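User: Thanks for the earlier help. One more: (Atlantic silverside) hypothetical protein. Can you show the sequence and predicted structure together?

Assistant: Of course, both are below.
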Amino acid sequence: EHFTPECKFKECVFENYYVTYSSILYRQTQSGRAWYIGINRDGQVMKGNRVKKTKGAAHFLPKLIEVAMYREPSLHDVAEQSPPRKTPKTSSDSPVLQNGKKDAQSKTKTSSS
């Protein structure tokens, strides 16, 4: 119901597994040649009357998607895959620094006689 006749295309598979899509509705007025879907090197859509089936802009490689193998990642999976967090050291594990020097409390004094 949402698709118009402009959305109908003929799919042709070449022997090298490339696929082209030509419009069923539109053709060249004089020659009757079909209009093809094409994408230029910048990724922009080309005009259908400028694209020929022999040009690389009209060749597409189909990619199969197996729906049965795909599943949405859950938050549990994300937590398991993340690297373990580093816990900050407590003050008892490391000496306390003041102005780049060890604090007097953390130094052990030895008395010489």
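User: Great, one quick takeaway?

Assistant: The chain has a mean pLDDT of 73.
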